[in-house]
Every structure is written in structure tokens, then in C-alpha cells.
Amino acid sequence: MFKRLALMAAAGACLLGNPALAATGGGATIHNAATLTFSGGEMTATVDVAVLTVGAAPVISVSGPSNANAGDTATLTYTITSTSNGLDSYTLNASSTDSNVAAPTLAVTPPVISLGASITSRPSTADTIYIAAGSETGLDAGDVVRINIGGTDYLYEITSVTPGTPAFTVGNTTTPEQPTLIVLSNASSGAPPIGAGDVPAGVQVGEVATFTVNVTAGAPTVPGSGGSHTVEITGETTAPGPGGTPEDFTDGGSGVVIVFSGEAVLTKEVRNVTTGSAFATSGVTARSGDILEYRLTASPLPGETVTGAVLEDSLPEHTTYVADSTQLNGNPVADDTVGATLLPLDEGGLQINTPSGVAGELVDGENAVILFRVSVN
What we know:
By secondary structure, the protein is mainly β.
């Protein structure tokens, strides 16, 4: 249940909103005893009232933007903090607004998360806070909780929980409630030790946890340009809110995945056609008048497809382009009749593609192969 939180939030961050809509912890018992005294005796009558959890929207935040290539999966890590007065479960859903990319695949883990919470019932003592007996459900050793001290939110880890005892009456004697004791340790940088009276009665104690959204990035829709997915989290409380129905909430769409147009590798080789040498990346020699053939191979990284691919290569110094010698995937490419040279790859480049790709597309598992020849001056 993601009980331990990898603490990313800085201590002393801005005060969280959505305070608990109750001043007593859910699960507490309101015990009332009335005693009738009369000549010759007395009698006591009691009644108990259970305090319910009031559903309240949690606070959700996300770490900075993530990056991905089309088809890759980026993980957004969210922090969720309860603002309720008791244990509540939240269903979580993700949707996205997409810019220049196809819709992604989204997966929320876990899709339902439960967080403990309560309200302090008396002032703190050293490293210890007190909540109503019975309201500690969901608050366990190792959990991280958010507590506001002096107007600033801090994170603390629960060291131990000692359940209390609700008030009760036996015969004509009523025993007051023994509150639940929660011992805390500093869980975030800058969180001050809790001293006597630092946390007064009526302060919300909300569990903090994390969940993730895996975003499998969609393909860019604009050749040569990346895009983005802006993820929005929506959900619903399990406990009814003040209106008697579950509370809906949203995080406002702050999770962003930047989608690149893809990555590729380029290999350049040359061979001496005149002497019959093989293609190589180094060690080739030539004499004046020899014909050299260059081979350029462009490939996307495994699992990726690149769009907007343009290859540029200037005419090598001390050479002259051999007219009509350029090929793309074995097919002739018309010479450039506009620029200073006839080489199609010069002066702005040539849009290339792999055999099954459209113009500018390097398809996963395929190579785009470009050939051209020059004569040595």
C-alpha cells in the first residue's frame, strides 16, 4: 500500500489546502453518562455515538516533467496527502491532454489507495501527538504523516502507535478516554522536533504516500517535432463528504511527459570504386581521378520510430560530385539543380526514410541507406 514514502517533498513547503472538514478523528467514540441520584440509591445511563470519517479531497502533487521517445514508457511519481479526519480510500484515474502527439496509454499504480488520518485531541508532548482513541485506523509505524506546525507543513515518520481506550462506564463509575499516543521522528529535512504544546488540539494529521502513472508515449503527429502529454489525475473518496456523497477531486493536470521525435544513429563509410576496395570507416586511400562512393546508413534506436528525418552532407573538399550518383534505398535521387552543387544532400539536406516508411520516417528495425559518388580532383 506504498506505506513508506520516498520523501521528495521539501520540508517547509507551502501550507497544504483542503483542511479536514471535522474537528474529531473518525472512529472516535463520544461517550455520555448521566447519573440519577435518589433516596436510597443512584443509577447511571449511558449512550455512545460513533464519529464518522468525513470524505475530503486529498492533496496531490507530482515531481518535475519526465521525458520519453514515442513508444517508450515514462513514469510520473505523485505524492498524495490525506486531508481527512479518518481512514479513507481513493479511487484514482488518469487522463491526458496531448500536444503534437497521439494519445498515450496510461496506467495508475495502485488504482485505489488508502490513507490513514485523524485530528489531534490534546496538545503534544515531546515527540508525541495524541488523537482520539479508535481514530488510529490506517496509521501505523513506518507511515509518513503531514503535520502543520506554526503555519508550515512538515513530514514526520510514525515510530510507534499505542491505541487508546474510549471513555466507558461500569456501574456508576465513568472512566475518561485514554487517547491514542503516536510517537514521531523527523522524516524530512528541516522538520523540527515536536515539543510540548507545539501541536495543539485540533490539528489534522494526514498520511502521505506515493502512486505512479506509467505513460506510454504516443507518436509525434508533426514530422520532426516532439510534443507532450499533460496528465490529469481525477478521483473519488470512499467516505461521504459533507453532502452525504463521495467527494470528487482533481489534481489540475500538472504531470507532464515531454515526447521526443525519436533518436537514431548514423554511420558513414567510403570505398574506392576505382581500386575495388570495400566500404570502411577509415583507412581508405585514393589518387587523383579515382572515384569514391560514400554510404550513409541511418537507423532508429531499437523500439523507436523517428519522424522528420533529414540528412545533410556537404560535398567533400578536393572532390567533384558525380552527376546522378545519389541513391536512397537503392532508388535514384534526382540531382539538385538549384544549389551551388548537384549533390542532393548538400545545402539544406535530403528528407530520407527507411523502405517501409513515409517521407522523413525511420521505421523501427529498418535502415535508410544513402549512396553518392565523387571523383578526386
